[in-house]
UniProtKB/TrEMBL annotation, chain A:
UniProt entry keywords in alphabetical sequence: ATP-binding, Nucleotide-binding, Repeat, Transport
Top-level division of the source organism's lineage: Bacteria
Origin species: Actinocatenispora rupis
Name listed for the protein in its UniProt record: Sugar ABC transporter ATP-binding protein
GO molecular function per UniProt: ATP binding; ATP hydrolysis activity
Pfam families in the cross-refs: ABC_tran
TrEMBL record, chain B:
Record GO cellular component, one term: plasma membrane
Source species, domain of life: Bacteria
Localization, UniProt: Cell membrane
Stated name of the protein: ABC transporter permease
Length: 597, 339
């Protein structure tokens, strides 16, 4: 079953044979074939630009391939111009939300097929049956275990809820084929687990799933087989059990890739525990729709990377926004090198040396139609002027230097950022944050939705900044990102819940802590930070949990124990030995990190 | 990692039915403003709170209202049409031109008045079809295209009658604007019917809902099987025809078609729509809101006239009131400049 999926076989729920597609001079897809049996989950992996999105648009009927055919259940697919017919056969959940944010959840469930009251046949169809729509939507969503107000606008519910609404809607037409295009990109871990919990019964019922993801660990978890694309070509297909992670990454990246095997994250050098912090957050309290903060304190020392981990809504992004001056805290202070920043002033934060990588690069990271050069130098235009006039020569030089430093692949600094791949867009965003040589870089999910090689380059850039003596506050849900951290602070419901002070990180312990396991909810952790600092100083304990509620269940103490070798190395601050072990151990735990080989 | 239990995902920050409650508040946000205006009006003039005056206001705003319906439909789909005002003028002019004798600057065919009215509406629809096709199929920026059409159509309107005004229109032609039915002007009945029909259409038909889907997320609408291009063009056609209807109502009210009928109307149209909660970004707005916007602006005009504000100052006061109304509707959750 693993070899040639192109052979015609009636039971395939969906089958693409010899698909090729060109856009202008670019060959997006060359002779790619894949097929999915009932009850099977096929993973589709590849770097950004490998052709995954093109496959999705062809298999979901949005695009006609130049050559090749698509068969559904053994029959030829409907014509591309008939979206309704496609929708009855293939359920697709696209990478970008296909809900209408201004319409209610209920109406989105029934978009263009709303129930109607009895009318006068085709001449005068009955009016839309709103209450039936609400009841029906509520019922379907209850079956999916989502407790959501169906009368709320779709734009007002959480990302995870939106996702489930989309899947539920897609499957409510009774289709047997589900395409999920990076469904977990915006989900936190628990959400991913819940999603898989919902997919497994579908597979058991014989639904075939095409699963596209950057997270290889998820592919191993949910998929039966995996197909690798590279540069628009089919590289290999096989049962997930038969392909090791290293093999998979090699297949994705390709042997000739200049980035393969280089730039592994160096051992995190232990920062000087006595150095004055470059960033101090004191008793920060803030209210925000994406998660509030209550009395959070932490410090980042020169050359230190502090990871911040937490579920969606736990306040991690609010913390980052407050430091960057984008959220005005109600209490507490943010100090850069001892100087308090005025609340809610991103411009002042920038001048004081805060470099910011926002969570949603599409919304806040770059100006789509502006060129790479204009975007990447956006934070330093004041330095590129002469008598108040922008100097084109200096501007170009600065843009080139930054683009080179981050390894942005573009047709030139004038190319609009919107035309770049996701990974290169993110490099521009990070480049913009690093342009002013910040004292502190605040990065939120800096590698979200980018391919393996870009991920490595981005983390390498942050690591380099840290190596040069700046502080890094790294907010991420991706444990592979946190591999470069010196310490990890875990937030639960807006409060500091636990702090892990020594790599390597125990993945299970981190996840358990972020879900608030091991301590009472209403137990204010107080100033656990100071404890963490001390611990960081003597580097003897594997982790400390503020609030003192973390028992052995969290595995926090086991974190040190399981990797005794590195702990031994770490005690003396022998960063090379300790760090390297930590690095690889962390990667062993997270499949994404494994990409770094 | 093998947890298969379906834990409920708790709605973040959204309590039950809060969505419905919020939209209800927005819906009636302008009612207090209208009440305040009525109180002010009552102080300004004794004749304000009379049936005759309200009938007068209704007659004055009915043509505007029909154009606001047209613009609202187009705005909901995420487009805009600036040329509606010139369409409003030109379609009425063409109709009158076909009906009037040569001595009255007509073409000379002296068409039956009812056919003339129909011709006016067809012309409006055709102009809409032209705009819609170029915007949707040729992907020309709607703002610039309809701005060009706005200038072009107004020029044609002046050109075909060499800048003259067509008076002495036949009775059947002016019935829409000048006649009464059951103690109310026909134009008020027509405008009310248009508002109700458009409101029911938007609320209770699949294509009506498709307008919102297209304006809210065009790709999602397409993926849901909605025939996006066809509907977008259709909305321009209907919008054009409604603008023409509005123009014919106005022609009936003033019993003439001037070479500059419609001038500056579009700004009031946009103001009424936006005050009424219609989003310029598409996907949001309804007929009840649009109607309140129209009534509010009509009352302001009426009070300014009754208060005998110096005519030089009327525009300034009018603009200030629109500004205040916009600010108020923003406070209660209407249009935002960025989203």
């Amino acid at each position: 079953m693993s070899g040639d999926p192109g052979r015609p076989a009636p039971p395939y729920v969906i089958e693409g044979v010899g698909l090729s597609q060109s856009f202008g001079h670019t060959r997006a897809l060359t002779d790619v074939s894949l097929a999915i049996q009932p009850g099977e989950c096929l993973g589709l992996v590849g770097r950004n630009g490998a052709g995954k999105s093109t496959v999705v648009s062809i298999l979901s009927g949005l695009r006609r391939p130049d050559t090749g055919v698509v068969r559904l259940g053994g029959e030829p697919a409907p014509p591309v111009g008939d979206p309704a017919a496609w929708r009855r056969r293939v359920a697709t959940v696209h990478q970008h939300s296909m809900l209408v944010p201004t319409l209610t959840v209920a109406e989105n469930m029934y978009l263009d097929r709303q129930p109607r009251r009895t009318g006068l046949g085709r001449v005068l169809p009955g009016p839309l049956h709103w209450s039936a729509m609400r009841t029906g939507a509520a019922e379907v969503l209850r079956e999916w275990g989502v407790d959501v107000d169906v009368t709320a606008p779709a734009g007002a519910i959480s990302v995870e809820q939106r996702q489930i609404v989309e899947i539920a809607r897609a499957l409510s037409t009774g289709t047997r084929c589900l395409i999920l295009d990076e469904p977990t990109a915006a989900l936190e871990r628990a959400g991913v687990r819940r999603l898989f919990g919902r997919l497994r019964p579908l597979l058991a019922q014989g639904v075939g799933i095409l699963y596209i993801s950057h997270h290889l660990e998820e592919v191993y978890e949910i998929c039966d087989r995996v197909t690798v694309l590279r540069d628009g070509r089919h590289v290999r297909t096989g049962a997930v059990g038969g392909i090791g992670q290293d093999e998979l990454v090699t297949a994705m990246v390709g042997p000739e890739d200049p980035l393969a095997g280089t730039t592994t994250i160096d051992a995190a050098p232990t920062p000087d525990p006595d150095a004055a912090p470059v960033l101090a957050v004191r008793h920060l309290t803030a209210a925000d729709a994406r998660g509030s903060l209550t009395d959070v304190s932490l410090v980042v020392r020169p050359g230190e990377c502090v990871g911040v981990l937490g579920l969606a809504g736990s306040g991690t992004t609010t913390l980052a926004d407050a430091v960057a001056g984008l959220v005005r805290p109600t209490a507490g202070a943010v100090l850069v090198a001892g100087v308090p920043l005025p609340a809610g002033r991103p411009d002042v934060a920038l001048r004081h040396g805060i470099g910011y990588v926002p969570e949603d690069r599409h919304a806040r990271g770059y100006v789509p139609m502006l060129g790479v050069g204009d975007n990447i130098t956006m934070t330093i235009t004041d330095r590129l002027t002469r008598y108040g006039v922008l100097s084109p020569r200096r501007h170009l030089a600065a843009a080139r230097r930054l683009a080179e430093r981050l390894g942005v692949v573009s047709a030139g600094t004038a190319q609009p950022v919107v035309e770049l791949s996701g990974g290169n867009q993110q490099k521009v965003v990070v480049g913009r944050a690093l342009a002013r040589d910040p004292r502190v870089v605040v990065a939120v999910a800096p590698t979200q939705g980018v391919d393996v090689a870009s991920k490595r380059a981005l983390l390498g850039a942050l690591d380099e900044v840290r190596g040069a003596g700046a502080g890094v506050l790294l907010v991420s849900d991706d444990l592979a990102d946190l591999a470069i951290a010196n310490r990890i602070v875990v937030l639960v419901r807006g409060r500091t819940f636990a702090e892990f002070v020594e790599p390597p990180w125990d993945r299970e312990a981190l996840i358990a802590a972020s879900e608030g396991l091991g301590a009472r909810d209403d137990d204010p952790p107080g100033t656990g930070i100071t404890g963490g600092d001390t611990a960081a100083g003597d580097t003897t304990s594997g982790s400390t949990a503020s609030g003192g509620g973390m028992g052995g269940t969290t595995g926090a103490s086991a974190a040190g124990g399981t990797t005794g070798a590195s702990a031994a190395g770490g005690t003396t601050g022998d960063s090379a030995a300790g760090g390297t072990t930590g690095d690889s151990a962390a990667r062993g735990g997270t499949d994404e990190g494994g990409a770094a080989q | 990692m093998t947890n298969t239990s379906l834990e409920p995902v708790v709605a973040a920050g959204w309590t039950r039915r809060r969505g419905a409650a919020v939209s209800l508040v927005q819906q009636f946000a302008l009612i207090p403003v209208i009440v305040v205006l009525c109180v002010v009006g009552a102080f300004v003039s004794d004749s304000f709170l009379t049936l005759a005056n309200f009938t007068n206001v209704g007659q004055q705003v009915s043509a505007l209202g029909v154009v606001v319906v047209a613009e609202t439909l187009i705005l909901v789909t995420g487009s805009m049409d600036l040329s509606l005002q010139s369409n409003y003028g030109l379609s009425a002019m063409v109709a009158a031109w076909l009906v009037a004798p040569v001595a009255q600057f007509g073409l000379g065919v002296e068409l039956n008045p009812l056919l003339g009215l129909a011709a006016g509406i067809v012309v409006g629809g055709l102009i809409g079809a032209f705009n819609g096709t170029l915007i949707v199929k040729a992907k020309i920026n709607g703002f610039i295209l309809t701005l060009a059409m706005y200038i072009l159509l107004a020029g044609v309107q002046t050109g075909i009658v060499s800048g003259h005004t067509i008076y002495h229109l036949p009775k059947a032609f002016i019935a829409l604007g000048a006649f009464y039915f059951a103690d109310l002007p026909v134009s008020v009945w027509v405008a009310a019917a248009v508002f109700v029909a458009a409101g029911l259409y938007l609320r209770y038909t699949r294509t009506g809902r498709a307008l919102y889907a297209i304006g809210g997320n065009r790709e999602a609408a397409r993926a849901a099987g909605i025939k996006v291009d066809r509907i977008r063009i259709g909305v321009f056609v209907v919008g054009g025809a409604l603008a023409a209807l509005g123009g014919l109502m106005e022609a009936g009210r003033v019993v003439a078609v001037t070479a500059n009928q419609g001038t500056n109307l579009i700004f009031t149209v946009f103001a009424a729509a936006v005050i009424g909660g219609v989003s310029l970004n598409g996907g949001r707005g309804n007929m009840l809101g649009a109607a309140t916007g129209v009534v509010l602006l009509g009352l302001v005009q009426n009070i300014l006239a009754l208060a005998q504000v110096q005519s030089y100052w009327i525009d300034a006061v009018d603009g200030a009131v629109i500004l205040v109304a916009l600010a108020l509707s923003r406070v209660v959750g209407g249009e935002r400049s960025t989203e």
